[in-house]
Amino acid sequence: METAFEDDVQLEFNATVGTGNNGSDDYPYYSDPNDAFLGSVFLFSVSLLEALISIIGLGGNILVFYVVCRFSAMHTVTNIFILALALADIAFLVNVPLLIATSILGYWPFGNMYCKIYYSVTTVNQFASSFFLVIMSADRFFAICHPLWSRKIRTTTSAAVLCILVWMIAVVLMYPVYEYSGEISISNATNSISCNIDWPESEVMELNGPSGFALYCFVIGFALPVALMITCYGLVLRRLRSSHAKVALDSAHLHFESPANYRRRLKLRRVTMMIFVVIIVYLLCWTPYWVLQMYIVFSDDLEDSFTIIITCLSLQCLCFANSAINPILYACLSENFKKSYCKAFKRTPRDNKPTKTTPLLVVPDASTIREATGVNSCTRASLQTIPQAQIEVLLKVGAFLTVERNLLVML
Questions:
Q1: Where is it chiefly localized (predicted)?
Q2: pLDDT at 303
Q3: Confidence (pLDDT) at 13
Q4: Which terminus of the chain has a lower count of CB atoms within 10 Å, N or C?
Q5: Predicted local confidence at residue 210, as pLDDT
């Protein structure tokens, strides 16, 4: 028997949007009034947590966007992909306030068109995030396993074009969301409005529309990208182990690598480790959510709706947290990002700007010339022995040294 909650959760593979709860005692998913009260308290707590995650995540990813665009030292191929991932995280988090407002009000108040925009933007950027991680994994594979060939194609321009292509693919894959999402009237005590996806009735692989689309999103948006990430990093790990063994063998035979090669190899390892940690955190945040979704899809009977609601909301927060954690990981694992963050918050004093000054004409005294030339006694007789051209040079040097000394006294 399929419950109303089961159908709702299958639709909400990104976030719980408008369950039709109007805040009254007639809550459609709870058979026990005590569960309804506990659910309301839990929903309020989750809303506060989501608000905090949204603020931290938006601030952090906007900072990533700023430092990558602002500082020329950050204009690298890897950072272009990180910039695209940050934009996807921003688009994913920017709609969290709408989700919170809907949870508090108990209905969707923003209209049909924005309901379509909400679902489209959220789902497209969720898919784009996983695709960007695949690209970053493939980039590490080519940079380490095929370094000579990758140098020819790994440019910031090609990286930017590839990111645009990824977004276009995500838009095409998620077009059904825009087509079928919209406001839906819920038949309950107050006939409230929900923003949801109204899938057409169909049976594919003995699955209805919502279940079939949830499975589609799991395969295309999670399972397949994760398989590609694991494959790329498995090959990278094998190459790094073989190169480490080669370096150890060369060291044993006293064939040391050049400092330039060592620095390049160390940089590759650091960037590879940073991307690897980002992928691991992504898996930790999203795997529990998709496991629950597949359980809902293939479960014959969902009896304990309250437990599923609590679990779904908790895992939803974990998914949002992934987008907020990434900027922190960059600061912890990349020295360049850490320095760029510090530079972004460092104020540049206005008086550091160069100012125009009037040149000073200073005639050097005897002590100045003596310090510049090393002559012990600067008498008229000793100066006569110095050629005229050298005297002119000494006068210029002495004038410069006197001006510099006077400026130091003024400071």
A1: membrane
A2: 62
A3: 37
A4: C
A5: 75
- pTM equals 0.73
Most distant CA pair in the chain, distance: 116
Alpha helices, DSSP H only, in 28-74?
33-70
Answer whether residue 2 shows pLDDT above 60: no
* 351 in a structural domain: no
Take residue 161 and report the two structure tokens written for it. 């074009």
Structure tokens given for 185 = 């009237």
Report CA-CA distances (Å) from 71 to 67, 96, 275, 344. 6, 30, 21, 9
Reported as a single tens digit per residue, the pLDDT across 260-286 is 665 666 777 788 889 999 999 999 999
Q: Which residues constitute the domain of residue 184? A: 4-345
Helices (H), 256-334: 259-298, 305-333
| List of long-range contacts for 313-318, beta carbons under 8 Å, 24+ apart | 313/16, 313/42, 313/43, 313/46, 314/46, 315/288, 315/289, 316/15, 316/16, 316/46, 316/50, 316/289, 317/46, 317/49, 317/50, 317/53, 318/285, 318/286, 318/288, 318/289
Considering the domain architecture, whether residues 133 and 206 belong to the same structural domain is answered as: yes
Domain annotation covers residue 322: yes
Contacts of 351 (CB under 8 A, 6+ apart): none
